[in-house]
Amino acid sequence: MKERARSAQDKAQRSEDLLRAAEALATELGGVRFITVQAVTERAGLHRTGVRRYYSSREELLLELAERGWGQWRAAIAEAVAQRAGLGPEDVAGVVTDTITGLPVFCDLLTHVTLTLEGDVDMERARRYKAASFAAHDAIVDTLGLVSSMTPDQLRGLLAATLALASTGWQVSHPTPTLAALYEQVPEWGHVAFDFAPRLKLLLTALAVGLHAVIPDTGPAPRAN
Question: Please, which of 36, 87, 218, 223 could form a disulfide with 148 given CB 3.0 to 4.6 Å?
Fold first, then answer.
């Protein structure tokens, strides 16, 4: 059992330990829905009440993990396109798909953020999450806009679809143990548990091509005087 953190650096490390423990458990257990505060603190080597010094609730801990996921996605996209230019809509869809599916816990959390996490923390914590997620979203649009033929409006539409499809698709393709057992008993129902990454890439490619075709490029916005 780790001793109580004394310095700011120690506290930051304990906070990071809790986030890593939560992410590891989500991966091992098949989703964040199965995570408990006790399991996270035990995995991090802290006393079961220790989490309260860093996060006021399970929801705040998971919202922090989701906020970090936004930063990881933004960084992954920047790295993926760092040496590229002239990307078409199909290429952009591929980058977006590959980077977000490389963050499975983030995909899972997107559902829980909307359903519970944002609403179950205090307003200031929700405000910080919103500010960080919007900043990451806008940075992704800017990054992809510099290397592709897609306009900001087209990219915003693609990202909106990505968030919706990734969150829902992850849940459908990772059924609970009860549903997995049911699909074994009734195989014709199991087709809904599709292969997540290939299906997402197919849908996002179609959307990117369609958005590129139907949303006009209106040129740069007029500059303010």
Answer: 87
Q: Find the largest Cα–Cα distance for the chain.
A: 67
Q: Are 108 and 26 in contact (CB under 8 A)?
A: yes
Angle at 212 between CA 207 and CA 214, to 5 degrees: 90
pTM more than 0.70: yes
Res. 6 pLDDT band, cuts 50 70 90: low
- How far CA 16 is from CA of 33, 74, 119, 181, 206, in Å, comes to 20, 19, 23, 35, 38
Tens-digit pLDDT profile for residues 69-86: 999 999 999 999 999 999
Most confident of 43-52, 72-81, 180-189, 214-223: 72-81
Sign of CA dihedral 101, 103, 105, 107: negative
Which residues, in sequence order, are CB contacts of 36 under 8 Å at separation 6+?
A: 58
Tokens representing 72 are: 């990881």
Q: How far apart are CA 222 and CA 122, in angstroms?
A: 38
> What's the CA gap between 141 and 155, in Å, rounded?
6
